[in-house]
Design goal:
Arginase, Chain A, 12 helices, about 40% helix
Length: about 375
């Protein structure tokens, strides 16, 4: 295995604001925990300094007029039309340098794709990436530039067949829209159902259009779905589709707002379910570009992505968090001492209802999507 970890301290020059749920310092905590476990000094690992994307890179997906508005907002010039582009108080605040922040995040995703597509690396992880809601001409859901869509577009120009798997609790709507009418990219999103969570999309009947019909796959879970239901639905749908689609590269968005203690969502996963799915992806992906994503319990983000990096490098981690990390985490008011989260209290009734709902979704996808992808 040859793995790469793309990272820079330049991320911390930017801030969504003190009351915003997306805390960029979660990336620092993740790096610190991975480093404390010794996972950056493995013989197979290369630390790769992030380089910024170029304007023309972003234009692979985003419109030029939108990029000009983003630049102006980044420099303190907020146009009257900014609200039309999704910018303003709330989810997508205007802050100094937001365009540069987007260039750093997208640059790291492009680097990951280049390294994997060239064969130089088997797996590359960009923990800053996975900002999957941004549309071609609009910011959405904390995302200004859709680094995943840009990165996949680049891979497609190189002739690669790409499968995108999104584990975030929120539907990967921006990436789905980017590839809704093509059979060169298959998007698979496992998320909390849109009737209880932003962005309100991602129903199982959203399966693509034109030659892309059958290549957009959505697995929406009802609130309070637990590990067993989640892993079962994943196993029923994702491995067979990947075997039928035969991607050159698998791109994953590893949002961890699926965990039961996340303050913004309603799924009830633990690290056990997350780790089980990642180990399965590891066996299925011929080459793997891994991106970060959501996660608003900051301690969960660091622990889950450290586990993810360990899976990518085929390392089993002890459950006691390293003292070197605990000292740093305490400065942010984080005092967890164990790597893995405990299973939440289970509700037999809720879990039974979730299983019944997911059996219906799985039947639908096997009827509509499988015959197309596995022909």
């Amino acid at each position: 295995m040859k793995t790469g970890f793309v990272y820079t301290d330049a991320y911390f020059d930017y801030d969504y604001g003190p009351t915003h749920p997306l805390k960029i310092f979660r990336l620092q905590l993740t790096h610190d925990l991975i480093e404390a476990y010794g996972l950056l000094s493995l013989p197979s690992v290369q630390m790769i300094p992030t380089r910024k994307a170029l304007d023309e890179d972003l234009a692979l997906f985003h419109t030029r007029d939108y990029l000009e508005v983003l630049k102006g907002a980044s420099e303190g010039r907020l146009q009257a039309s900014a609200y039309r582009y999704g910018l303003g108080p709330g989810d997508n605040p205007v802050f100094k340098g937001l365009y540069d922040w987007s260039l750093w995040v997208t640059g790291a995703t492009l680097q990951a794709g280049e390294l994997v597509s060239s064969g130089e690396k088997d797996v590359v992880f960009n923990i800053a990436g996975g900002l999957h809601h941004a549309d071609a001409s609009r910011a959405s859901g904390f995302c200004y530039v859709n680094d995943a869509a840009v990165g996949i577009r680049k891979l497609v120009t190189l002739g690669k067949r790409v499968a995108y798997i999104d584990l975030d609790a929120h539907h990967g709507d921006g990436v789905q829209r980017a590839f809704y009418d093509t059979d060169q990219v298959m998007t698979v999103s496992l998320h909390e159902a849109g009737y209880t969570l932003f962005p309100g999309t991602g129903y199982e009947h959203e399966i693509g259009e034109g030659i892309g019909k059958g290549y957009s796959v959505n697995i929406p879970f009802p609130p309070f779905a637990e590990d067993d239901v989640y892993v079962w639905a994943f196993e029923e749908i994702v491995p067979p589709l990947l075997e039928g689609f035969k991607p050159d590269i698998v791109v994953t968005q590893l949002g961890v707002d699926t965990f039961y203690s996340d303050p913004l969502t309603n799924l009830h996963l633990s690290t056990q379910g997350f780790e089980t799915v990642l180990r399965r992806i590891k066996t299925l992906a011929p080459h793997w570009v891994a991106l970060g994503g959501g996660g608003y319990d900051v301690s969960n983000v660091a622990r889950a992505w450290a586990l993810a990096w360990a899976v990518m490098n085929e390392v089993d981690l002890p459950d006691d968090l390293p003292e070197a990390y605990l000292e740093k985490a305490a400065r942010f008011g984080i005092y967890d001492r164990k790597l893995r989260t405990e299973q939440p209290p289970s509700s037999r009734t809720r879990n039974g209802e979730a299983r019944s709902e997911m059996e219906r979704v799985v039947r639908y996808l096997k009827t509509t999507v499988f015959p197309v992808v596995m022909k």
